Amino acid sequence: MLADVEDHNRQLEEAGIPKCHTHRLHPHEMEYMDWVAAQVGMPPVGAGVKEMYWSIYKCAGEVGYDCYRDLWDVENLTQ
User: Superkingdom of the source (predicted)?
Assistant: First the structure.
């Protein structure tokens, strides 16, 4: 397992990807979801769901990832 982690880190470094993005899936999230589905005997994600996912991803990118959902004023929340 350690050899796999070291290989993964080497690939990130060669691609110029910072270590803080170690767990980032983009742009391979659909491949990952299909892999997870296969591990539990489920069919891969359908083309329609993939298209919807990428449409939402694109929209969030255009709006800004910090503003595409409601923002909460955490300091002033009451319990």
Answer: Eukaryota
Identity at 17, one-letter amino acid code: I
Return phi, psi of residue 15, to 5°.
Answer: -85, -5
Separation CA 72–CA 64 (nearest Å): 16
Mean pLDDT in the chain? Answer: 82
What is the C-alpha to C-alpha distance for residues 79 and 70, in angstroms, rounded to an integer?
19
Q: Which two tokens stand for residue 79?
A: 């319990």
Whole-number Å distance between alpha carbons of 35 and 44: 8
Radius of gyration of the chain (CA): 17
